[in-house]
Amino acid sequence: KFCGSPAKSLAQDEKPEYMTKRVLPIIKWIYVPYCKCLEGNCMNGYSVYTFGKNCEHKFEGVMKKGRAVDGKYTWDNGKTWYEGKLVKGVSHDNTGKARMKRWDGTIIEGSFVDGTVTGKAKVYNPDGTVEEGEYDENSILNGYGTYKWTKGRYAGSAYAGNFKESRFNGYGEMNLSVDHSIKQEINKDEI
Predict the structure, then answer these.
(1) Torsion over CA of 142, 146, 150 and 151, rounded to 10 degrees?
(2) For tag attachment on the chain, is the N or C end more exposed, with fewer CB atoms within 10 Å?
(3) What does DSSP assign to residue 32?
(4) Model-level pTM?
């Protein structure tokens, strides 16, 4: 059951094609996107609307022909969000540069392909560590990158070097906050 639809205000011949086709129930909320239009007309231009089974989620941004094209989706009362360009009007199909915050507090800034962080990205973890580098199609840090500690016992320390499967691997440089550094081969089994 859905709260509302921008399609209700349009004549049948004015509806975009995706609003007239039958879609899978699991993604139906994407194509009948809003419960309440809070600002704008929720068809073209800047708009704000709520969506979801109980109208608990929110979109704020630019619409074109009833589809979100650029903006910010928020879920879980703002605990989770996605901000950037949108492909097909949904955040999980995004390809391009974007920012997102996951439910656990992790913030990711970088390149996405089909909603997955792929390519150059920076990841801010809830424990205060920051990772930056090249992520593969499985969102795993491989190749050269950096890892920094911003909180706790190792605050101010950093590693710059090679990663394999998101772990230090191969040659790298560790700069410790106690003002000295270590340069050596590091294998993932040693850490």
Answers:
(1) 40
(2) N
(3) S
(4) 0.69
